[in-house]
Write a structure and sequence with these properties.
Elements (H helix, E strand, L loop, with lengths): L2 E3 L2 E4 L4 E6 L9 E7 L6 E7 L5 E3 L7 E6 L4 E6 L8 E8 L14 E2 L3 E6 L1
Parallel strand pairs: 2-11
Antiparallel strand pairs: 1-3, 3-8, 4-5, 4-9, 5-6, 7-8, 9-10, 9-11
Amino acid sequence: QLQASGGGVVQTGSSLRLTCTPPGLTFSWFATGWFRQAPGKEREFVAAITWRTGRMYYADSVKGRFTISRDRAKNTVNLQMNSLKPEDTAVYYCATTLSSSSSVIQLSTYSEWGQGTQVTVSS
């Protein structure tokens, strides 16, 4: 099971760093992504990265503020979140996929999910 950590309660404009550890050997996975779900809303794509090439994908709402990266030595994926806004408040989930044939921004692409970590941004 994926392990996600790093959430917390911060003020507007602050930063947080989330970390995800996919299960097993990362060379077997195609991509790892971050999604979030706010109360009363559907789970939405935030960012994703492919393990082999390091190609990054971002939702428009986080471009320029969030940075996704992978650490092959530690087998982790990090999501650096800067300039946080109240609308970033949500439970953040990491997920990983073997599939290279489906879009990495779609929830249905991912087969393994973590338990989620709460991010709360106060105004």
